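Worked example 2:
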Amino acid sequence: MKEQLEQLLAAAVAELQAQGTLPAELSPRIQLDRPRDKSHGDFATNLALMLAKPAGTNPRALAEALIAALPENSLVAEATIAGPGFINFVISQDQLLQQLEAAYQDAHVGVANAEQSQRIVIDYSSPNLAKEMHVGHLRSAIIGDAVARVCEFLGHTVIRQNHVGDWGTQFGMLLAHMEELEGSELAMELSNLETFYKAAKKRFDESPEFANRARELVVALQSGDAKCLQLWQQFIDVSLSHCQEVYDRLGVKLTRDDVMAESAYNDDLPQVVEDLRSQGLLVEDQGAQCVFLDEFKNKEGEALPVIVQKSGGGYLYATTDLAAVRYRQNQLKGDHLMYFVDQRQGLHFQQIFTLAKKAGFAREDLQMDHYGFGTVMGKDGRPYKSRDGGVTKLADLLDQAEARALALVQEKNTGLSAEEQAQVAKVVGISSVKYADLSKNRTSDYIFDWDTMLSFEGNTAPYLLYAYTRVMSVFNKAGVQPDAISGTFVLQDEREQALANLLVRFNEVVHTVANKAMPHFLCGYLFELAGAFSSFYEACPILQAEDEALQQSRLKLAALTAKTLRQGLELLGIETLDKM
């Protein structure tokens, strides 16, 4: 609907340009918004205000001209001018009813595929395998996963890449500790990677001999020593199994096949450096091999270096990321590379993207974007920690979420069996952690608060999950299937109209999430939809409707609401419940 209206406005602009009312060279970006006061209409635009100055005319006069130049159509019921030149549009009732019916019948709930399908390579999660996943890994995993789901839903080919850290100096320390342990003792120690890492670090700090051995093993590992590689692979397998357990619990669609670790690029790193050298981009600075990009300068106006090889011959994140760009373009055939990494890495990725194109590692038309995110904070305003002040393992966090949710379910005394309570607690607990994160603006820090995220009031997972079960209870009482309702939509009450207007916005919202990589837009929409259904439910009897036609229409509105809620939550990676 929004896209259709934008096309009509574009046609109106072209008509005014042909008449000479607007300069022919203007190519305005047509932007439609939802008016804050919904009584003014369904959409609003400030196009006349934007174009009035270059056109040398009054904004209200130009608004009148734009309305008059709109092609004949069945979409717009009314177009009015407000304030200094805003144009408000009311969509015709017939169009609304047609879109409701189409969404009800459509497996995609009325969401159109992207205009142009792309191969999108999405880099997300990317934990360091030296330790178990902790709360700091939460945002990349679930935000990246939600955007990947949305892109797939819109018809894109999505290739997930889990760029795990499995190569570097800290692995020498871990290998040295593995050497000291044998058989069952080693297996037992590896069962808790956090404990194993701390023990290895303690040995490294306290024993010069151990530290020297660790450094020797790094060199041996990177030189391809068979014994080192065997120990290293054993550690990596254990670590990846820990990661997969967390992904499975979170409902994140990452598998072992999606892992493309730092070590996978190891053989290409010397070639990356050589290719940069052959193009005259490398400069030696204090023994290190660097590229200085004029696009990035410090406060003194000096170009900042991108270090691709240390003075001792070692490689850095920049080298690996450049190799990854080449792989994702050449082998994976990506059209768009998306990186969901902490926003503190913003400068690093800007430099990598710029250098990749300058060096010819990436085509000029290859789209590369870093989507940064804020930090999970505790109530003290610092990065979230466990009660003992340590980093909270994700597995422990999820255990706690399920335990807290189970206590809430048991308090409500819903009559569920113990098995049903456990299932509800699992879904509510995990969903609450995910939704609390996804509902916040990706670029902002947020406070991790158990009481808020597990509340059945406000923009939370429990509220939305309960709203879904409430809608489905209507069909349980009626004894009918939501997808088998006859009759047509009839919108008599203003609450029916408001719910209908929200339901047809689902397409627009999903595309916005994909375009901006901002899942919180979808969360906000689903919360608003649940609220609109609640108002409709209270004011408009469904099963006791005054006649059959009205009952069928209201059942159909309820069915489309349930379908939209379920699909929206699925795009966020959140499982729904039939009862709770």
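The chain has a mean pLDDT of 91. Residues 447 and 550 are 45 Å apart (CA to CA).
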